[in-house]
């Protein structure tokens, strides 16, 4: 029972990290129409930036803040200097983000080296938590709570604010949104920055949960793609549900079927595509 509960806790925490990663990916694709293959690299970069700030200055949450702001700033630069010049050209944009991921991975390796690093959870979440007479690590509860909180805040912003209405308008029809007076390039740039900042935030927050490695970027980008395909492109709720599902099947697979742990998320994705090609909460192309 304790093993199952421990697997459930870690699976939920991993699922929330995948949500923080994939929510930004889905947001960027929905607004800017860019399949950002450098998303995992920005996640890893945020993790290393947070690690370095913590090592130099001390407070873990200061490192998270600096990593998030730096990720958002780098997102603005990437969108303005690279992707805005390729607007409307899907294949060049994909290739550009793929090349950017290689550049960031090499930069991370050059600055921090290729060694795997571990990050300790911040106090007071660095010790065990007793529930029902059983001991559990406390930091996965923090990660899970942060993921749920970010989901609720993002949903509130997108549904209840003017900025959210503008983002939804550009997502639905950028041409019509521009005709109505919205600055589509500006909204796309800010959304890109927010998505990258969210990925960097996830990397910094998740660093005590997942060991730091320069090669983690490809794995995280792949997980982001799996989550958005399962949940449905452009759907925040779909990304949240899909991230939980992928986290659960990955976590329990690693415990009870380790030989199939890497295959199970792909099997889930194939099953969803076969039954519902647009994803769990996605819309069919051309639907109202």
UniProtKB/TrEMBL annotation:
Keywords: Amino-acid transport, Cell membrane, Membrane, Transmembrane, Transmembrane helix, Transport. Pfam families: BPD_transp_2 (PF02653). This is Branched-chain amino acid ABC transporter permease. GO terms for biological process: amino acid transport. It comes from the Bacteria. The chain crosses the membrane at residues 60-82, 94-114, 134-158, 222-249, 255-275. GO terms for cellular component: plasma membrane. It comes from Deinococcus koreensis. GO terms for molecular function: transmembrane transporter activity. Belongs to the binding-protein-dependent transport system permease family. LivHM subfamily. It is found in: Cell membrane. The keyword Ribonucleoprotein does not apply. Its main location: membrane. InterPro entries: ABC_transp_permease, BCAA_transport_permease. The keyword Cell division does not apply. It is a multi-pass membrane protein.
């Amino acid at each position: 029972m304790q093993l199952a509960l421990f697997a459930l806790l870690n699976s939920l925490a991993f699922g929330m990290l995948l949500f923080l990663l994939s929510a930004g990916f889905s947001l960027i694709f929905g607004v800017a129409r860019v399949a950002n293959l450098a998303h995992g690299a920005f996640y890893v970069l945020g993790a290393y930036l947070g690690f370095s700030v913590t090592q130099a200055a001390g407070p873990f949450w200061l490192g998270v803040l600096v990593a998030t702001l730096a990720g958002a700033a780098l997102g603005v630069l990437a969108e303005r200097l690279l992707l805005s010049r390729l607007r409307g050209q899907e294949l060049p944009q994909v290739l550009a983000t793929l090349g950017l991921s290689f550049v960031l991975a090499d930069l991370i390796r050059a600055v921090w080296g290729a060694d795997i690093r571990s990050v300790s959870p911040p106090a007071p979440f660095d010790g065990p938590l007793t529930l029902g007479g059983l001991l559990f690590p406390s930091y996965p509860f923090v990660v899970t709570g942060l993921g749920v909180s970010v989901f609720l805040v993002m949903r509130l912003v997108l549904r209840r604010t003017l900025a959210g209405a503008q983002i939804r308008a550009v997502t639905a029809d950028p041409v019509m949104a521009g005709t109505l007076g919205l600055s589509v390039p500006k909204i796309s740039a800010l959304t890109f920055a927010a998505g990258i900042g969210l990925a960097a935030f996830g990397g910094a927050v998740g660093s005590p949960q997942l060991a730091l490695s320069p090669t983690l970027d490809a794995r995280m980008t792949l997980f982001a793609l799996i989550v958005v395909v399962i949940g449905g492109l452009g759907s925040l709720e779909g990304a949240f549900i899909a991230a939980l599902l992928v986290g659960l099947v990955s976590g329990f697979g690693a415990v009870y079927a380790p030989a199939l742990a890497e295959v199970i998320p792909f099997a889930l994705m194939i099953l969803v595509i076969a039954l519902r090609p647009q994803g769990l909460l996605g819309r069919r192309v051309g639907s109202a």
